[in-house]
Amino acid sequence: MSILRTAKLLTLNVGKSIGAFQVLSRSDWRRNHLLILAYHGVSLDDEHVWNPDLYVSPEYFRSRMQALKDYGCNVLHLSEGLERLENGTLPTCSVVLTFDDGASDFYHRAQPILREFGWPATVYLTSYYCNYNRPVFDTMCSYLLWKASGRVCDVKGLLNGVASLDLRSTGGRESATIAIREFSRRERFSAENKDELLTALAERLSVDYQAILSKRILHLLSVEELSTLAAEGVDIQLHTHRHHAPKKRDSFMLELGENKDFISRFTKLPHHFSYPDGEYSDCFGPWLGACDVVSATTCEPGLATTQSNRFRLPRLIDTSSLRQVELEGWISGFSNFLPRKPTKAATLIAPYYY
Prior knowledge:
Mean pLDDT: 94
Largest sheet: 6 strands, parallel
Oligomer: single chain
Structural class: alpha/beta
Radius of gyration: 21 Å
Number of helices: 16
């Protein structure tokens, strides 16, 4: 743990112990600040063990929602939260819940818990793998290799020139994942070709791929799941079609247009956007505005105010490594006064995964 984080945790614990959190959370100052929380995945099985920067367990997620309730947070729809922020009518301790990518686990794990609390949520959906509803290739490569940890696996004839994969260390698994991804891109594999490669890879690794498929691990929302969520009032918003935001205008507009057209088949026309991996550039604001997008969220921690750039709204990414007192620091607003560094989102779906 860094010296800075150690010092921040000490400060947070002192602030909480003397009652500063509770006082600040009920202040007029906090009423003019909106906390936008972000999640990526709530595990269907062991994903939070595989990648704790992306996934939290259902028990962990429920405890976070309970913390919001215990603080008396007002959980608002994204559009309502932004409108009330603008006109100065936010209620006490206002929070918006967002989920990036639109993984199937939102339907099976997160939404049932949100339903218990009676709270709204926004899903920023990347749509390509909703139509082609198979596991997301890049992340499934990493997951399969993790499942086979501790071995050297024979892959002769599978990856053109690669004879074996050393999975005995984190570094070895990362190198193997990169090699597989580069091979598929070099060969210009289609989504179907990639899916066949995953099946063959799982067999070589002696991993029960059918069991993984049956649990819908690392799948995006199916058309049926998406329809059900939209009918329940879950807010579905923009995250690009292929989880990629090109810096060429025509390519960006195509990504956004395909994403918008897909979402509009199931629900109202989307007007809010989240940057894939939290990466943004000055060029994106005017392009989003030209497409009637009214807000865009980043992965930089902070509280949104009327002074925030509407196309660079701060958002706190909640992960398994974020301690309870750190979350409470942001709920109350106390953490807004502490030094912080920009945070890049963990990658759930790599660019160009089609």
